[in-house]
Write a structure and sequence with these properties.
174 residues; mainly alpha; 11 helices
Amino acid sequence: MTREDLATIISKVRARYDALEPGAKATLRRCSTANELSAEGVFWRLVDDAGVPEGERWRMAHVVACFDAAGAGGESFASWLRRTAYHDVKSADLPTRAVRVRRLLASRDRDELVHQLRKLLKHGFQASRRGVDWGSLGADIMFWGDRVRRNWAQDFFTSRPTTDASNLTETTHA
């Protein structure tokens, strides 16, 4: 399965998540880990209804565990984070001020990644009320490793914040 195919499926899962009844969302929101999600029928119904292939369903739990932290939008995660949570930090100060980002980038596995990511997503979304591109972010979570880590670091530390939402561009993590 290509990264683009996976991003499309994740966007579909996110859209179905957004359409869930409040009680079903609350059930998923109470789960803070992929293991907790895997015990919930709501999660399995969500991935089944979205047509997630059998081989990807377990890893999808890591993505769904982050859904409640931020809404859907059109910008890649690292650029979005730079523009939302760290918009007021000068580029020269960013490496020393972005402690949470460094913790995120140091995540050894998806479980640790989800723990750190939820905090940053909540912080950025609360600061801006702007959503993130869940297709791209979800694929990054599912393919978590050195390549994604390097792409996020580059996009985060080199992005220039802008106040004009029309100037936002999506960065592709190939």
